[in-house]
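Before the break, one more example. Copy the sequence into your notebook; we will annotate it together after we see the structure.
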Amino acid sequence: MERNEFIKSLGMGVALVCTGACFSACGKKGDSPEPGKPNGGGSVPSGTTASVDLGTQLLTVGSSIVVSSILFIRTAAGNTTTSFAATQAICPHQGGALSFIQASNYIQCGLHSSRYNTSGSILAQPNDGGTTSALKVYPLTVSGNTLTATA
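Here is what the structure looks like once it is written out:
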């Protein structure tokens, strides 16, 4: 075998191996998250609960914390459910982390600056030209000093 033929056959073998690896890594259709939502839209599995200790966390109006992919926000004084909000902590656009911006009183995505109010409604679409959907908002209960959200 001449050198030219050897290089051609070697190149074809490498190409076939790379193609096979690519196809196997791609997975099948059912393996992918929701279209347009690479990280699955930040869904919290149904039935999931997350709790916050109001004696040590969320002490001031405007404070926030993420527990088990749920963003808890204190919106008012008092320890009743109306003093808090709980939304998904992952942006439905492309899976960026959401943060509560206390000074502006909205929730913002760290990736493309989508903005939402504390009831989950969209205030601003992503700055990358894409679109987002409203945030999931979770029902809350208060028992003593424990605030619980249920997905």
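The two ends are 66 Å apart (CA to CA). The chain is about 15% helix and 25% strand. Try to locate both features in your own notes.
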